[in-house]
Structures are given as structure tokens and as C-alpha cells.
Amino acid sequence: MNRRELIAGLVGITLLGSNRFAAAQAPRLLTVSRRTLEVKGRAATVFGLTGPDGKPGLEMLLGERFNVRLRNSTQTDTIVHWHGLTPPYGQDGVPMLGQDPIPPGQSFDYDFANTRSGTHWMHSHMGLQEQQLLAAPLIVREVDEPLFDTQEHVVLLHDFTFRDPAEILAELMGGGGAHAAHSGHGAAMDHSTMDHSKMDHSAMGHGQPAMAASMLNDVGYDAYLANDRTLQDPEVVAVEKGGVLRLRIINGAAASNMWVDLGALEGELIAVDGNAIHPLKGRVFPLAIAQRADIRIRIPGAGGAFPVLFRPEGAAVRTGIVLATAGAAVQRVAEEGDPAPAVDLSQERLYRAVAAPRQEPVTRTEMLMLTGGGADYVWGLNGKASMHDTIFTVREGERVSVMMHNMTAMSHPMHLHGHYFHVTAIGNTPLQGALRDVVLVPPGETVTITFDADNPGTWAFHCHHAYHMNAGMMGTIAYTSPA
Questions:
Q1: Is 324 within 8 Å of 304 (Cβ atoms)?
Q2: Which of 47, 180, 241, 289 satisfies CB 3.0 to 4.6 Å to 413 for a cystine?
Q3: Of 424, 419, 462, 425, nearest to 437 (Cα)?
């Protein structure tokens, strides 16, 4: 490993064993609350998720125990999933899978040895609360101060609606809404379907292929947010001339895959889902729902103001932040531009994990069909809609491959709880791909992942599109006792 790879490898370090962890301290208080957010001059009541310092989410060091008291200060049941961590069964924050929802006014204590550094996040796994912004960053650093970057900045993305998400889901399942036109039963909302063959893909880089007859968005949104702000009043991040910035970007959207567009800047993608990859240079990077991207950017020595845009696929509306050096004039950035093309796997094919898997044979391969999406808006796995039914079982110590074939006309970002997996094939092409916990499976595509069964329990495996999951595209992988 050369120096460049060593630096990249400091992202996503995993510690083994329990003797490396600090002694237990008093639990950190994490509070779920209600708050008022102004979007485009209109007030909305959304969820908040704040740590003991009053800021969204948590930051901690690798080697600290995850010792957190989650307090529900709202008037409804809730629960929070630690997305990116691999806790023991019963502390994963999924209702009916080892843990009950937390009632109003009550708390639950979590305490486990965290072995995962990187850019992670936390979000509700209760109904559609995630759509109501019940999410926050969860950053686990290797050291107190960045070793190679001048500064770091975390960006949490959301798709936002003033509507009640339960009403949206009911409309979709009743044959209405944006999905209706895709199913041939009504008029679509703006940007719900489009012919990608007429798009200009050249600006997106890495050869985006045209894809017709697929559907990109089945929910219409009022705005897209970057750290709770639109491009009408974007966050301006102060940076240094010639400095190096690591952007930790989290796609916390409920139903929107996005592109990260650096504009005039060039960056290096150094980690995905909190795990280091061999750096990949570019100006535009894909980010499916629930995925994370660490991008290292060198600010030009001459300084200036540099918009970084986040563009939902199929939509003209976008959000963003502005990186600005001292004294730079910050110009207004238009909220609409050309519709962004579909997020695909062209860059995924290029990713190579710094931490390669051990050279052990795969015990077996499971087939998983992603199904549904008709006029009734029922989605499923292997033709069955469920929430907690077992898809297949594993035994501890096995190495399992899962070949996922998307038989629907929409992309599905598939997330396995309690484990990380390597992307080992796209279609018929074998890969030594990235180490991830979410991978996008576009329409008609087959993606194979491989994971080690090293965390006994019954674990959720689902599409991270919140409406698809709540309409049936979720199941579990259950461990069995040795024979």
C-alpha cells in the first residue's frame, strides 16, 4: 500500500475485539423532538434529532463505546436506526426486530462497542417519520483533528413535502399521484417520468447511458434541502484559499436519488458509505438514497465562491451549498436547471475498496427478485410484499452472496442491516467493488453483493425508498443455530 492508499485507508477503519474500547461513561443524551422549519417562506412542523450539545446528531471517536440514551420528547411512538453501525441484535433501532418502539416521554439506553468509523447517519425506522426529517448525521472519526484536510463539513440532504406522508402513500396505493401515469391510470406530476434519450448526458461525466421507459420519481416534492436550506438561502461555508476540504455528504432523502455536482471544482471521492475506496477524481458523483460520499476538494489558490449542487434525478429543481473564501462575492444560484439524468451504476463499476475481502470461498448464493410497482403500488421481494417475513436464513460463519434482479421499472437502493457487503458483480461482470451497506439496483439490472454472516440475529433487508419499503419491499435475513 502506497502513501496515497494509506491516507485513503484512514477513512472507514474497523477495530476488532473489545479491548480497544474506552470504559463506559454516562450515556450521551440524544433527543427526538418537534421543531418548526421555514421552507420557501412557509412554516412546517418537522422532527428534530439533537445531541447533548444541541446540534443535530452525534460525533464521536472510534474507540468510544456507543453509549446513548435516546429520549422521545414527542407525542408519538418513535425509534431510531444507527445507519452505518453494526450493533448487536436488539440495538439496531428497528421496531419488531429485537426492540419495541419508544413511547412518548420515554427513553431507551443503547450501549455497545462500535467498530465502525466513517460518515454515517441516524434516522427513524418508524413508518414515514424519516420523510418528516427525523434524521441526523452520525460521524465517527479516527482522530480528534483531521490529519490531511484543512477542514471538514457535513451535508445532510432531504427531499421535502408540506403534505402528510401517510396521505401520499395512501394516494399512491389508491392508484393516484405521480405513480398513476407510470401505471397508465392518470396524469403524472412534473418530472415523474421522462425519456432519457433526449437528455444531455455529457455534462454528467463517466458516460451516463440513456434509459427510456423507466420511472425516476413517484413522489412530487415542494423543495430539496441541504442542511435544512434551499438555494433561495443556501448555507455558505467559509473555506481557505488553497485549503483542502472534506465534504461528508449524506443522502437522507426519503425517495430521491441524487447527483453531487461540484461545478467548477474537481474532487476526489475517497469513501462511500463510510468505507475507503481508491480515490476517484471527478466533478460529478452519484449518491443513491441513504448512501454517503466523502469527497476531498482543494480550493483554488485564487479563492472565490463555488456552488456545490445536489441534483435529484429526473428533476429540474435542485439544492446546494456555496464554498466561499474570505471576501468572495456570493452570487445567487438558480433553483432550477436542466433535469438530471437517472443515477446509474457506471461509476459503481469503477469503485475499488481499500479494504479487500478475505480470500475465502462463497458458501452459497441466494437469488432475490425485486418485484411489484403496479397500479396498486404494492412492492415486494420474490413476489411477496411484507415487512418482517424471512427471505432466507444463514448460519454464523457463512459467506453469502445475494444476486438481486430488479424486475420493476424503478431503481431500488437496497440496504442490509447489521452487516457490510462488497459489491461483487454487476450483471455478468465480476467486481472487487466497494464495501457498502446500500447499493442501487436500477431497472432491469442485476447486482450481486457478498457478506460474511458474523452478526447473529434477525436483520432487516429492504429498499431504502421509504414509500417502496412501507408498501412491502422489506424482509429479513435470519440466523439459524448450527446443526
A1: yes
A2: 289
A3: 419
Maximal C-alpha separation, the chain: 69
* Beta-carbon contacts of residue 178 (< 8 Å; ≥ 6 apart): 172, 188, 189, 192, 217, 218, 219, 220
The helix (run of H) or strand (run of E) holding residue 182 is helix 179-182
Question: What CA–CA distance (Å, rounded) separates 62 from 84?
Answer: 13
Q: Contact, 166 vs 128, CB < 8 A?
A: yes
Return the amino acid letter for 273. D
- Mean pLDDT of all residues in 356-375: 92
Q: Closest Cα partner for 108 from 132, 78, 142, 143?
A: 78
| Residue predicted with more confidence, 33 or 11 | 33
Please report where in the chains the cell 474537481 appears, as a residue. 266
464: left (phi over 0), alpha (psi -120 to 50) or beta: alpha
Q: Which run of H or E residues covers position 5?
A: helix 3-9
Q: What is the pLDDT of residue 143?
A: 81
How far from each other are the two terminal CA atoms of the chain, in whole angstroms?
A: 41
d(CA 317, CA 340): 9
With 80 as the cut, is the pLDDT of residue 382 above it?
yes
**β 244-251/151-160 pair status:** parallel
> What is the pTM (predicted TM-score) of this model?
0.90
For 405-440, the DSSP string reads EE-SSS-EEEEETT--EEEEEETTEE----EESEEE
Which residues are registered as beta bridge partners of 30? 70
Segment among 31-35, 125-129, 162-166, 209-213 with least mean pLDDT = 209-213
Q: What residue ranges in 242-363 does DSSP mark as E strands? A: 244-251, 258-261, 267-272, 275-282, 284-287, 292-298, 305-312, 319-324
Q: What is the mean pLDDT of the chain?
A: 89
pLDDT of residue 391: 97
The mean pLDDT value for 174-191 works out to 60
Least confident of 3-12, 30-39, 145-154: 3-12
CB 247 within 8 Å of CB 155: yes
Choice between 203 and 124, residue whose per-residue pLDDT is larger: 124
How far apart, in whole angstroms, are the C-alpha atoms of residue 235 and residue 288?
22
Name residue 245's beta-bridge partners.
151, 297
Joined grid coordinates for residue 442: 436500477
Distance CA 380, CA 384 (A): 5
What pLDDT is recorded for position 213? 52
* Rounded CA separation 405/428 (Å): 12
Q: Residue 157 and residue 259: Cα distance in Å, rounded? A: 11
For 77-96, how does the pLDDT look when each residue is reduced to its tens digit (9 = 90+)? 999 999 999 999 999 999 99
The whole-angstrom separation of Cα 114 and Cα 83 is 12
pLDDT tens per residue across span 216-233: 999 999 999 999 999 999
